[in-house]
Design a protein that fits this description.
The structure holds 2 protein chains of 2 kinds. Chain A is an all-beta fold. Chain A is about 0% helix and about 50% strand. Chain A is built from no helices and 11 strands. Chain A is globular, with a radius of gyration of 13 Å. Chain B is an all-beta fold. Chain B is about 0% helix and about 55% strand. In chain B, strands 2, 4, 5, 9, 10 and 11 form a 6-stranded mixed β-sheet that branches. A 5-stranded antiparallel β-sheet of chain B has the order 1-3-8-7-6, with no helix packed on it. Chain B starts with a strand and ends with a strand. The chains are: A mainly beta, B mainly beta. The interface between A and B is medium-sized, with 32 and 26 residues.
């Protein structure tokens, strides 16, 4: 059963703590993405990766870090430098061949709340 | 960065009616995508339309693209309560064709 999984579904963090959100896919996609969504808003791109061991900053990368050591996994760390981290975080993946655009497949999301 | 903006922000209709949502964008694109998001869930890809296509159908969905007006529309025919969701258009981002920029969405409510 192919798809993208994110864990945990809900995450609570104290101010000053780093937290890592998990994203795993078994779709054999090369490209993976992290988005942030605030209430009533669209998605904003945090980081994306088109291949293992390579990733690029999106529009709002400050206060976040990622790694891409395996094709299947793209964890996101929300650091204490992120001033307003409470949000809904979505991971996605897509085919990455050539320069064309493809549909992105999304995980169920992680809702992060800073206490 | 270029961005699609959906209109209206919210739409409420009765079951069985048609729902039309619009998306406008700022700069030339070679494709546009529509996604649906149920409350508290991830997004689901609905349809991708390329700049050389004027209209595309998928089941009860009909998408049009007018590159001269820099706009797209999503029509859902014979709506059902299960169509209640937010709908987003997405355009290619500045970094690569695979990077998407999303609008703020249209919240569709279909009343039974």
């Amino acid at each position: 059963d192919g798809g993208i999984t994110q864990s945990p579904k809900y995450l609570f963090r104290k101010e000053g703590q780093n937290v890592t959100l998990s994203c795993e896919q078994n779709l054999n996609h090369d490209a993976m993405y992290w988005y942030r969504q605030d209430p009533g808003q669209g998605l904003r791109l945090i980081y994306y990766s088109q291949i293992v061991n390579d990733f690029q900053k999106g529009d709002i990368a400050e206060g976040y870090s990622v790694s891409r050591e395996k094709k299947e996994s793209f964890p996101l760390t929300v650091t204490s430098a992120q001033k307003n981290p409470t949000a809904f975080y979505l991971c996605a993946s897509s085919i990455a061949s050539g320069g064309d655009a493809y549909a992105q497949y999304f995980g169920p999301g992680t809702r992060l709340t800073v206490l | 960065s270029q961005q699609g903006e959906e209109d209206p922000q919210a739409l409420s209709i009765q079951e069985g009616e048609n729902a039309t949502m619009n998306c406008s964008y700022k700069t030339s694109i070679n494709n546009l995508q529509w996604y649906r998001q149920n409350s508290g869930r991830g997004l689901v890809h609905l349809i991708l339309i390329r700049s050389n296509e004027r209209e595309k159908h998928s089941g009860r969905l009909r998408v049009t693209l007018d590159t001269s007006k820099k706009s797209s529309s999503l029509l859902i025919t014979a709506s059902r309560a299960a169509d209640t969701a937010s709908y987003f258009c997405a355009t290619p981002g500045p970094g690569s064709a695979r990077q998407l920029t999303f609008g703020s969405g249209t919240q569709l409510t279909v009343l039974p």
